[in-house]
Please model this.
Amino acid sequence: MSEIALENLGKTFGDFTALADMNLTIANGEFMALLGPSGCGKSTTMNIIAGMLRPSHGAIRFNGQDVVDVPMAKRGVGFVFQNYAIFTHMSVRENLAYGLRAQGAPGAEITKRVKAFAELLQLETMLDRPAAGLSVNILQRLAIGRSAILKPAIFLLDEPLSNVDAAFRAVMRSELKSLQGQFGQTMVYVTHDQLEAMTMADRIAVMDHGKLLQVGTPLDIYNNPADTFVARFIGAPGMNILDGRLIQKDDAVSVEVPGIGSVDLPPALQFAARDLNGSDVQIGFRPEQVSATGSGLTMRVGLVERIGARTIVHLEHEGIAAKAVLPADVAPPVARKDWTFTVPEDGVRLFDPVTGQALKARAH
Amino acid sequence: MQRAIPFEIFRYVVILSLVAISLVPTLWMISMAFKPIAEWSAAGADLTWWPRNPTLDNFRFIFGQSSTDLIVALERTAGRPIFASLLTATFGTLIAMTAGTAAAYGLSRFGQGGNLPLALIQLRLFPPMAVMIPVMIMWSFLGLIDNWFGLSLIYGIVTLPFAFWLMKTFFDDMPREIEDAALVEGCTRWRVFVRITLPMMRPALASSALFVFILNWSDYLIALLLTTRDWATIPVYMASLSSSMTGQLYGAKAALGVIAAVPPIIMGIAIQKHLVRGLTFGALKE
Model:
């Protein structure tokens, strides 16, 4: 059981900063997802935790103990790679037993554990098959088993499901989650797939360009993105962000989006924006929260995508694009016509147009 | 894809002529090996593809059982040179593969060694004769002339660049995650190399070793310069197969050539499975 603390962790390759001053504490037994686009530094972070890379500065602590100088073999972490890293010259059984054997476990213990894990991962029928001929799905299952069998206190998974097929991915998502429930390891899961992060993680750390942008529960990140990058990155499609201006009339503050309309703000945001009358602001709202009834904003309808359970409506106004997601039972608007819609007050988020940071709601 | 018929004809003509160019001498050698002296010597009236009176005389001759037709008596039989060739080529391959693999692994994994790869390839850039004279002097100083180890050592040195470059390409192509996975599970670097990397590299090792072996096996020049009598190899011995009476003993040479072709072929067949994988190693990854 281990808590992982990253303190001012940084990694540079020559002039390139792969990771800049990362501070993150992952609690014992927590399932933490590192989420971000390719090249955001999430794999670098992972490799530093595992000990494959040495940080340029900063500290990594397992249970308070700095492990920067501990070689990877001694850190007691399990690591699952995107491309399985299966020893293809060995059988499934030998692969499972490999780590235990390397650590000098007694033979009886190895046999017992291999049997238990083969059952757990439904590999019993192919224990004596050579690993070389197995399918991609089975290879990844075996890779997970080979790491899990060592019962590491810290389990690191680097995009383990990005090579397997979609149906199997759904199965493995729930299996990984239950595996963690069973053994209670601290899990760090690197992915660029927000669905994996949202469904499995206790908390998500969103990263971009080597920086940690936000850490929070999946719902927190979805509902209250810390900046416009997180807002656009999370959700499919991501949050709509429009340029507007704060207007104060009497006591009420609203946002005017030039040429499109205006949106009223909830009380908490009104309070936060009170003294900013006339200043530029970015307004964000989830496509799912767009309501076809009422008035407020008007945009021209472009493409209407009907994808079964819901309909995605592409909206446009003089180069400004937005999307709306409507339930399938709501009649979609007519293409190439103007369409008027509303955004409920509590679905509105405000961002600083210069820094992209969210304007925090404040109580009275 | 459908191609024009003239092009197809042209293609096959080219292929067939290339096959003929490489096969005709080989087939001629095999045919000659089984011909009696009358059919291969200058006295033979006309040359035929198929031996009219097939015989094993040539083989008997080089192993010392002189037949009546061949009046010359051999000073030495082929047994010793065959053994010398086998021993020196094998040992030279062993030296080149051991040193080359170790160097390639270090360089591929740790990026150390600076200009070593270029320095090694440079060994192949100038003609062997340019270095053979100093080598001869050094070897003679060290007492390594006409000595199996001396010849093996120079074979190992000369073929080291091939072993190194082939193995480096293979190591570069192997996904590093496989080693990292074993390291993270508690293996030492040495154990990873011996238990994971080398077994997975078996196809690569096999095809590189075969390549290096054939280079050593077919050397004439170095053996000619560094051996005198005891450790003359097959090519050197073959050159001595002539007599003042009959001139070049083509039949005996052909017989020896057939024998010399056997080890590389056997090795090639034995590691054929690995060879194909070794040659297509880059395609191994998904």
In short: Chain A has a mean pLDDT of 89. The longest strand of chain A covers residues 16-26.
